[in-house]
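Fill in residues.
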């Protein structure tokens, strides 16, 4: 997105520069220079500017990377858990970035030069920098834009209807995304395209009656006509603002907070309230009164704790300790901790899967590969980002040099509490690790009525965790709400979303600069017009409002269109329980952009009204 924003901005700026020197181009063309020679002349000039900018950009890139790494080691330390992170600057990276940037920028500049190809030397000498359009041609162009916007709206409406009525299934499409999520993202993209198309069509409509006869001067209506004077400039700069707003709002809306989620069977918590680990093996069944007696539970039968123990359901796992492969560990791992899954959980099913086929993917653990591979399940984040493995890939045990057994990835969880571990059936676990006795990993569930509200969920989780930790203190039993563990995992994701939001803010800054540049150029082109208005009695304040309304129209259109389109794209997530959108922060960013954009317009006006009225009119 940043690269695309930079391309549009370079194209816009270079084109504005070429238009400003349209008479020069017409003169060199009239005295005998061929069109190719003229383009080559300006392109070489552009290359000098681009290379200079790329050199400055290399230093800025290293500085930005250093700032990001510093942030990860200080402000966002919870996301990586280590201070041993350093910037690695290599000559290959710098050279690759330099040449790619130069090629892209030169390509954007060349594209900006194409606008002059169809204009004759005579028109260029007369100050014409755009191919003139007749009223019929402008209306035809507006109708095309209207058709495009209408098609996008119809597509978005059909997708929404399909999602609401169930015609678009809620099943997985790819990488944990359901078809409905994909559909709504297309809805957002189509809405964004439609908004820009309708803006283009609106600017191309006939506005001869924008300022009525005999009425008091209306700066707002005249501002709309001024915005339509250079339609492509207005639409491009608005598109930059809208796209940047889309990215920022969508990223902000993607954040989650599992602490407000209730246990649900087909989610990352699998319907469980607590996750617990013990430092010593637990040899007895915590679900039975006899097992609890063997573990010396001391609970008064008439107390509420007795009923709490009776209501709870514990799923116990055998554990083979290994390396931490969760996203909280930056270092590459080979073999993570392995859990032995009891058959009762395989039959119960639950949890959310990604890219895994079957009504009950847990049953894949009971199958065996053609060459005796042992099937395992793992969380998508663990497999893809820590182990660099996908479905069908294998892991040798104990290592690649001495493979006694081969594990094969049979499926992936999506955002589950099992991040950092691999799961295999208890039967296969006993074959691999017969020496492991007892259970050291536990998932605890309670009846739904105990988690009907968020308050009840938190109170039940605290009471049950305190009770189990007290009764099993000799086993080193440590329990915590599943939501809190998921929140720690998601802290990494939310942190990186914040860094992406910073990059989106940089793109929004580019869009604001582009719009400010366009406004300054528009004002400079209309200096004689503004001087005439001043000569017949209009005050500077009135002229300022004339320009501000024009800028406010384009700026507000871009911000609102981008924000609404992003919210539509993220609607399935926003309607989910764990959505945690920083509305205040997002509103502050968009509001700040509006203020900066309007301030830049004031500077453009100040530049225009400094010029003397008489000399400006004489030069016309």
């Amino acid at each position: 997105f940043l690269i695309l924003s930079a391309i549009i901005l370079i194209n816009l700026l270079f084109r504005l520069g070429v238009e400003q020197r349209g008479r020069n181009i017409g003169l060199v063309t009239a005295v005998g220079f061929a069109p190719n020679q003229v383009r080559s002349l300006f392109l070489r000039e552009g290359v000098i500017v681009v290379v200079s900018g790329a050199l400055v950009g290399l230093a800025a890139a290293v500085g930005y990377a250093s700032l990001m790494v510093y942030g990860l080691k200080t402000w966002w330390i919870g996301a990586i858990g280590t201070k041993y992170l350093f910037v690695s600057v290599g000559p290959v990276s710098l050279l690759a970035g330099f040449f790619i940037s130069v090629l892209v920028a030169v390509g954007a500049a060349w594209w900006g030069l194409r606008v002059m190809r169809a204009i004759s030397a005579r028109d260029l000498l007369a100050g014409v920098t755009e191919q003139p359009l007749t009223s019929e041609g402008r209306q035809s162009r507006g109708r095309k834009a209207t058709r495009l916007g209408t098609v996008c709206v119809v597509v978005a409406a059909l997708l929404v209807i399909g999602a609401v009525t169930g015609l678009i299934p809620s099943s997985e499409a790819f990488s944990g995304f359901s078809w409905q999520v994909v559909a709504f993202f297309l809805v957002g993209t189509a809405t964004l395209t439609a908004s820009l198309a309708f803006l283009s069509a609106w600017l191309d409509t006939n506005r001869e009656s924008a300022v009525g006869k005999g009425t008091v001067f209306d700066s707002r209506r005249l501002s709309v006509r001024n915005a339509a004077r250079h339609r492509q400039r207005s639409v491009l700069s608005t598109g930059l603002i809208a796209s940047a707003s889309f990215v920022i709002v969508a990223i902000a809306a993607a954040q989650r907070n599992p602490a407000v989620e209730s246990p649900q069977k087909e989610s990352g918590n699998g319907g469980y309230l607590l996750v617990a680990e013990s430092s010593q093996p637990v040899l007895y069944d915590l679900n039975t009164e006899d097992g609890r007696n063997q573990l010396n539970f001391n609970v008064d039968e008439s107390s509420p704790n007795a009923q709490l123990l009776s209501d709870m359901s514990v799923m116990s796992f055998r554990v083979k300790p290994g390396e931490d492969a969760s996203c909280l560990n930056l270092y590459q791992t080979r073999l993570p901790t392995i859990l032995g899954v009891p058959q009762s959980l395989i039959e119960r099913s639950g949890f959310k899967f990604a890219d895994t086929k079957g009504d009950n993917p847990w049953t894949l653990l009971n199958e065996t590969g053609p060459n005796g591979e042992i099937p395992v399940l793992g969380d998508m984040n663990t497999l893809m980002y820590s182990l660099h493995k996908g479905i069908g890939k294998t892991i040798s045990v104990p290592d690649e040099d001495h493979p006694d057994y081969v594990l094969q990835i049979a499926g992936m969880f999506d955002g589950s509490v099992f991040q950092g571990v691999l799961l295999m059936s208890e039967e296969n676990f006993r074959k691999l690790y017969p020496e492991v006795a007892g259970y050291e990993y536990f998932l605890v569930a309670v009846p739904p009525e105990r988690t009907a509200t968020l308050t009840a969920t938190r109170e039940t989780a605290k009471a049950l965790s305190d009770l189990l930790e007290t009764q099993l203190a000799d086993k080193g039993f440590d329990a915590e709400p599943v939501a809190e563990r998921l929140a720690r995992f998601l802290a990494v994701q939310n942190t990186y979303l914040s860094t992406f939001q910073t990059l989106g803010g940089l793109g929004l800054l580019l869009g604001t600069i582009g719009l400010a540049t366009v406004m300054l150029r528009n004002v400079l082109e209309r200096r004689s017009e503004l001087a005439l208005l001043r000569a017949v009695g209009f005050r500077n304040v009135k002229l300022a409002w004339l320009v501000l309304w024009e800028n406010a129209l384009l700026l507000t259109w871009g911000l609102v269109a981008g924000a609404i389109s992003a919210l539509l794209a993220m609607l399935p997530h926003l309607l989910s329980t764990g959505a945690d959108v920083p509305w205040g922060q997002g509103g502050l960013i968009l509001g700040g952009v509006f203020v900066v954009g309007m301030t830049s317009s004031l500077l453009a006006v100040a530049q225009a009204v400094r010029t003397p009225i008489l000399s400006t009119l004489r030069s016309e």
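The chain has a mean pLDDT of 81.
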